[in-house]
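TA notes, week 10

Several of you asked for a full example with nothing omitted. So below is the full record: structure tokens for the whole chain, then the designed sequence directly under it. When grading your own attempts, check the secondary structure regions first.
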């Protein structure tokens, strides 16, 4: 934890922290430090951190651009899960709690980014989750819904990684972005396992040709100048790292589902 983030956590009102963490966790003699750490790990708590971080001054345009880029993806994911949960007989009762939790996270990410950006936040686009008919039964066929859920979450993981370096000028913002990245990674792992797959990407393989762009370039095995495939097979080597996606690649993927902005 960086000194700036540590200071930020220590300035949060204890009563506000107790409203954010669960009643169970707030019971008993819980230190302010413990509550701060609990908050930092909860998606809904990120908004509190953002409010404190950005009250100190305006955001540079470069950071605004990255946050709006992230907001566009979060709009897409939040609406996808909201519509999925609203669709009759789509999500089985056994896995409905999983998607309810994911939806809470994605809606919290939208709220966080919008609050952070204020008047500079981009408007929510109009989405077509059938992608022009490629996924025509997305809200009537659970397997198709899972396919897109995996695609969106895997994209999110690589997208945040691709632009994290652009946030290095502000420790607090970078920390929040990486926390969201971590949440997206957990979503991706869970959904992949629901589809009977490994919890991580292997090479650039996908069983859905229409989503090939999500996995393009993830077969890389050279890290820090070392070809890790020299020590294990190429597939295993590729699994160790998620490769970042460029902004252009991510926007092209999202663009498959955006009707208008």
């Amino acid at each position: 934890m960086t000194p700036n983030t540590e200071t930020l956590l220590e300035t949060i009102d204890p009563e506000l922290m107790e409203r954010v963490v669960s009643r169970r966790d707030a019971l008993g003699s819980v230190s302010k430090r413990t509550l701060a750490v609990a908050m930092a790990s909860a998606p809904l708590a990120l908004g509190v951190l953002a409010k404190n971080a950005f009250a100190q001054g305006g955001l540079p345009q470069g950071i605004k651009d990255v946050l709006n880029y992230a907001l566009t993806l979060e709009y897409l994911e939040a609406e996808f899960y909201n519509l999925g949960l609203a669709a009759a007989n789509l999500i089985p009762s056994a896995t409905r709690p999983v998607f309810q939790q994911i939806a809470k996270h994605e809606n919290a990410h939208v709220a966080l980014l919008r609050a952070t950006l204020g008047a500079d936040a981009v408007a929510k686009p109009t989405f077509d989750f059938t992608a022009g008919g490629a996924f025509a039964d997305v809200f009537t066929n659970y397997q198709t819904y899972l396919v897109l859920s995996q695609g969106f979450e895997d994209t999110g993981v690589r997208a945040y990684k691709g632009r994290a370096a652009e946030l290095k000028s502000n420790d607090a913002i970078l920390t929040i972005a990486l926390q969201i990245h971590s949440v997206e990674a957990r979503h991706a792992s869970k959904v992949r396992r629901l589809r009977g797959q490994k919890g991580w990407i292997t090479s650039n393989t996908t069983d859905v040709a229409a989503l090939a762009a999500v996995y393009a370039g993830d077969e890389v095995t050279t890290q820090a100048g070392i070809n890790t495939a020299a020590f294990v097979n190429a597939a295993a080597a590729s699994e160790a790292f998620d490769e970042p996606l460029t902004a252009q690649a991510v926007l092209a993927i999202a663009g498959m589902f955006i009707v208008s902005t």
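Residues 61-86 form the longest helix (26 residues). Use that as a sanity check on your answer.
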